[in-house]
Amino acid sequence: MGWFSRPAAPVSYAALLREGDRKAAGAAALLSPNHLLTCAHVVNDAVGRDLLCAERPTGNELLRIAFHGSGRTSRYGWARLSVWVAPEPRSADVVWDGDLAVLELEKTAPEWATPVIWRDMTEGLELRAWHGGGVGITYADTVAGFRDGPGCYLDGSLTGAAIGPGYSGGPLRVKSDRTVAGLVIAQVMPGQDPLRAQETVRRSWAVPWQTVRERLTRAGAHDILTGCEVIAPDHLTCTGPAEDSVRQMVPLLRALLDDTARRADHCRHLAAGLGMQAPPGGEQSAPTLDELAALLLTEERALATLTESLAPVVGGHGGDRTTLNGLLTLGRVEPAVRLLSVTEHEQLHAALLRVAGEEPELIPRAAQEALRLLELPEALTRSPRLAEKDVDAVVQALEEYPDGRGATTGSLPVPALLRLAEFVAAAVAAPDRRSWLRAWCERVAERLGISVAALAERRADAKVWAARVPAPVTQVIVRLHRAGAAHPNRFLCEIWLGHKDGGRTAVATPESPLEPGEIGRLIRLTADGSEAASGHAPTRVDVVVKADGLDISVDEWDAGSVLGDLFPDLAELGTPLGSRYQVMLRCPDLSGSVPTAASEMRRRWAVGGDGTLVVDESCHDIMSLHRLLDEPHRDTARVVLHGPPERRQQLLHVCLAMGVPVVLWDRDAGSHEDAPRMDVLDPTGPLDKLPGRLQEFRMSQYAASASDGAARPALIWEEGDLALPGALWLADPA
Q1: Of 28, 296, 307, 465, whose CB has the highest number of CB atoms within 10 Å?
Q2: Could you tell me which residues come within 8 angstroms of residue 113 by beta carbon, excluding any fewer than 6 positions away?
Q3: pLDDT exceeds cutoff 90 at 89
Q4: pTM of the model as a whole
């Protein structure tokens, strides 16, 4: 055992209790402070049903649960069934599939009951399970064996306790670390065909984490899963720091901590910060330099925590500061070393958590400006608002980013995480939060050896950005691309906010293809975030598509609702985009293919007035329409298209090529006989009121649950220049 050691981790147990005798029907794994994972058959047992009953329990009854911890600590409470994955018996087999249940706790789990950390289950893993009753002596050791479809068989030795009734639903803890690889399902009973009794001794089976993740995702529990901590197996099999890294670090540590008493003092402070134990004894007890170097290169916050106590001692100048800078430089190239100390990380996480709760759109907005040349973490691009549960992931991701741009000559550059903190501080509403974040940045910068002038430059940039008052947002601009044959019902999406002065503000969006409902909710969240940030609610959504996208019914996509965001059971309360906003199409690729189209559009807007060309049976082909738009309707700004879809598509392209800025048609019309369905829109009425009339029509159709005979109007509205950037990829020049 080395100088540094960890105290034995306390083990907590969770169980689901039967209604009758209050004994454990089975065990459970704590997914999060508010959710338990167990087997569906354990729930059946707890409520007195047949174990393999597949039907979800009816009603909303409370289930009694228990938490047991070390030192005979226990707490009892209640939970409700949230997610049900029924047991699925296999034909002519002794095992079954499925069999999962997620319970939502009435009250948050006790602090000493920590959520499990997951890892994938692989053959040969040595595992340990406990009975749901929480008695330590009931531990049962077993080994992961053959993977059979979604399940995995387990085999235990012939000594000690065996997995049996009451173990189902319990976490299978990996003996070599603190992770969990899956859940116990059941034991294989002796004498079941095709197995003989001696072949089933100590054999049971489990559901691996890989299957848990897949089944719960399929059951709609994605939001619950995102809060689970998962460690990749390659992280767990790390063999320690490279010898070269230790060899480079030891001379620097010797220069700073050659004195044994001084080293012991700083290392005791380090051990306390990392939650480790130092051996008892006086100042003579200190770790070797090799052991200390190995710890600094394997414990992710050890180096930052050590330098936190060293920096005030060495001061800002001189040889010791230079040596400390060299130590930090070595840490920056080591994959296991993080930027922040334990205390710094906890403080920043708590501060940003409060900001995300009070101003959820601020951190993503600040990141777009502070880190404009960097590819942002996925949590900052998924939505214009940052969820509180994603704050820690953002902090940890940005710790790994390269040092930033524009440092004062002779100073280290300001890291990305500190730049973000400065920009958040500049724009946060609460003055005390601003002061605290700036003081935090100053402390961390001083520890890292970053000059006051370098940090001041970034702070000045942040102040300029925060003081800039953008023009009111008038529209949301969405550019859609079909994701391709592999994802026929998904789209790549880019979003901008359009300001009254013609400016554009890019909104962070996911790079992966999205489903229509996901894009609809993202558009609504973007509009809501703009209203919360500036007090101006955009009423218009311009959807930019290619020529093959004019049939995309974006106005019918579900925009979700605030209640649906908070309560998944109310997700159906969402409304189509077209009833919330004035949704209009734009196709600059098609109109831009003709050199004169843009100037013609501007001219038609200038002189067109309320004139309208209604395309009926008399205009039967593209040549007829071309002649009409070229002479008698040369100044007309609006065309209403009727007719069959195959002809309508060609005529639509002619309109855009000849600079017609407004085109209205019924997406569902099968022939000219369907033209009267559009009369309710007054298609030839006042042009400036047409988008509003269209929105009112869509609202009425949604409220009335429109019949198949109703029109499905689509509108192209090309107004003003739409200068959107193309694909451009930049890398940080660092």
Answers
A1: 28
A2: 12, 14, 30, 67, 69, 75
A3: no
A4: 0.57
Burial grade of 43 (CB within 10 A; 0-12, 13-18, 19 or more): buried
Instruction: Residue 388: count other Cβ atoms within 10 Å of its Cβ.
Output: 13
Q: How far apart are CA 355 and CA 361, in angstroms?
A: 9
Question: Token pair for residue 134?
Answer: 């929480």
- Name the pLDDT band for 532 (thresholds 50, 70, 90): low
Query: Is the pLDDT assigned to residue 507 strictly greater than 60?
Result: yes
Specify which residues 626 forms β-bridges with: none
Pairing of strands 229-230, 117-118: parallel
Side by side, the strands of the sheet bearing 582-586 are: 504-507, 491-499, 473-482, 540-544, 582-586, 713-717, 662-666, 638-641, 612-615
Please provide the DSSP assignment of 252-270 as one string: HHHHHH-SHHHHHHHHHHH
Task: Give the model's pLDDT for residue 91.
Answer: 56
Contact of 176 with 88, CB cutoff 8 Å: no
Q: Please tell me the distance from the alpha carbon of residue 353 to that of residue 169, in angstroms, as a whole number.
A: 33
Handedness of CA 294, 297, 298, 300 (dihedral sign): positive
Rounded to 5 degrees, φ, ψ at 670 are -100, -20
Task: Quickly state the pLDDT bin for 623 (edges 50, 70, 90).
Answer: very high
Q: Are 521 and 495 contacting, i.e. CB atoms less than 8 angstroms apart?
A: no
Give the residue, 652 or 402, on which the prediction is more confident: 652
What's residue 188's pLDDT? 75
Cβ within 8 Å of residue 469, ≥6 positions away: none
Give the model confidence (pLDDT) of 42-84 as tens digits: 999 999 999 999 999 887 789 999 998 866 678 899 999 999 9
Cβ count near 61 (within 10 Å)? 11
* Number of other CB atoms surrounding residue 443 within 10 Å: 15
Asked if residues 117 and 178 have their Cβ atoms less than 8 Å apart, the reply is yes
Dig out the tokens for 407 from the structure: 């440092």
* 727 vs 79, more confident: 79
> What's the distance, CA 683 to chain centroid?
43
Confidence of residue 38 (pLDDT cuts 50, 70, 90): very high
